[in-house]
């Protein structure tokens, strides 16, 4: 393999593949280095192996989702928007669909189709992909960079670091890029696992493992003080809680070293007012007094959940709708509309979807993705201090920053 390149991209994930495609598009001699045996491992795992490509919103919606750091994405999104992302994959043979949640997936529900499209485009742009080639060190030269790998030494006029963060280290994302960034003077904002499942020692939660509820309101709290709210799909697990809504609110608890004062407050029926639910319970006592309460409420919530909640307030599984006292009704309403659950921790980087923190955005030119500290050094994707909610937002940031980094690196060469 040739050792001299115009652009070398380090990392063949979402951002890296787009960067390689973009850099090679106008003829730059481009090499993409990947330490794993296969490229795009996290792409294949994402969205339950379906790959949530992006979200059904405009560029402003993407920017807003990233909070204070979202403004950094204005230029990347101007270069490669949500619409252009969808068009890119459609033209590459991946038909897409919008689900009720706003998430955009391949019609095939196969992440492999997304990865194959990226690899085909990379090949079409005459960019070279080298697998099982971990970068061990990077040194500056008079006209670029020297990359020392386990296979060979490579020289590049420009390099793009797209090595990801620390989430899902089993995929190879072990923070390699941070040390290279630090070597060139960059600041790494404190990293934490984000979008991670939460653990609890509440036995009743574990006993409901496998129960899914499509819409639950969740409030993350410290010392009962609300920090963050969201609603969406929710899953009980053998260790605690998961599902999109849990992953999103986990961000509010990620930085804790001690979880003893952390909790969630759950509203299992966020679309039903408490007064309306109370009225329904009262009417059931007179209209369906002989019916099992778990059956009468079964049209609203899973029966296993109802029976678990009943057990906590002293109701038997055979409890009928009739004869519920005012205090019992109050306890039932509280368990459905504002159930507290103590949190003991998260599953950490091992199961986190993304990493919060990373290369400081103050040190990267958002209009080009080039380092403000070292000419010819570019960044894209999760290595940056950018993390958004679940729903395709983080992939969009990766596609957009990768595309912009590749096109700018290529433009400055030519």
Which regions have little confidence, pLDDT < 50, spanning 5+ residues?
none
Domain tally: 2
Helix count equals: 14
User: What is the CATH class of the largest domain?
Assistant: Alpha Beta
What does this structure look like?
It is a single chain. The protein folds into 2 domains: 4-193 and 354-413, FAD/NAD(P)-binding domain (3-Layer(bba) Sandwich); 197-346, no CATH class. Helix content is 33%, strand content 24%. The protein is built from 14 helices and 19 strands. The strands form 4 sheets. Strands 1, 2, 6, 7, 8, 9 and 19 form a 7-stranded mixed beta sheet that branches. A 7-stranded antiparallel beta sheet has the order 16-15-12-13-14-11-17. A hairpin with a 4-residue loop joins strand 4 and strand 5. Helix 1 (14-24) runs parallel beside helix 14 (393-413), helix 2 packs antiparallel against helix 6 and helix 10 (274-287) crosses helix 13. The longest helix is centred in the C-terminal third of the chain and has 21 residues, at 393-413. The protein is elongated and about 85 Å long. The two termini are 23 Å apart.
């Amino acid at each position: 393999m040739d050792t001299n390149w115009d652009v070398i991209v380090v990392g063949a994930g979402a951002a890296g593949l787009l960067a390689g495609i973009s850099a090679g598009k106008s003829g730059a001699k481009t090499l993409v280095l990947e330490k794993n045996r296969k490229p795009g491992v996290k792409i294949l795992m994402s969205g339950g192996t379906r790959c949530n490509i992006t979200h059904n919103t405009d560029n402003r919606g993407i920017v807003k989702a990233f909070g204070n750091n979202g403004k950094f994405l204005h230029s990347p999104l101007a270069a490669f928007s949500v619409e252009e992302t969808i068009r890119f994959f459609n033209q590459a043979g991946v038909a897409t669909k919008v689900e009720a949640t706003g998430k955009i997936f391949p019609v095939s529900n196969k992440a492999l189709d997304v990865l194959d499209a990226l690899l085909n485009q990379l090949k079409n742009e005459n960019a070279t992909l080298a697998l099982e080639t971990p970068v061990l060190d990077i040194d500056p030269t008079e006209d670029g960079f020297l990359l020392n790998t386990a296979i060979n030494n490579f020289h590049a006029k420009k390099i793009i670091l797209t090595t990801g963060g620390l989430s899902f280290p089993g995929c190879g994302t072990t923070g390699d890029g941070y040390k290279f960034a630090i070597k060139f003077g960059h600041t790494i904002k404190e990293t934490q696992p984000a979008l991670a499942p939460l653990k609890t020692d509440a036995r009743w939660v574990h006993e409901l493992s496998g129960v899914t509820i499509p819409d639950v309101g969740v409030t993350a709290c410290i010392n009962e003080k609300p920090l963050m709210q969201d609603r969406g799909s929710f899953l009980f697990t053998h260790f605690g809680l998961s599902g999109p809504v849990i992953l999103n609110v986990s961000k509010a608890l990620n930085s804790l070293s001690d979880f003893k004062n952390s909790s969630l407050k759950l509203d299992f029926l966020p679309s039903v007012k408490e007064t309306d639910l109370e009225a329904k319970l009262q009417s059931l006592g007179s209209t369906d007094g002989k019916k099992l309460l778990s059956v009468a409420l079964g049209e609203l919530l899973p029966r296993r959940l109802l029976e678990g909640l009943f057990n906590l307030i002293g109701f038997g599984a055979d409890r009928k709708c009739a004869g519920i006292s005012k205090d019992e009704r109050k306890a039932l309403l509280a368990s459905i509309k504002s159930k507290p659950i103590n949190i003991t921790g998260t599953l950490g980087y091992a199961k986190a979807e993304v990493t919060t923190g990373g290369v400081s955005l103050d040190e990267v030119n958002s209009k080009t993705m080039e380092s403000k500290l070292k000419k010819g050094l570019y960044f894209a994707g999760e290595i940056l201090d950018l993390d958004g909610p679940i729903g395709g937002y983080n992939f969009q940031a990766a596609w957009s920053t990768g595309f912009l980094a590749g096109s700018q690196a290529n433009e400055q060469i030519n």
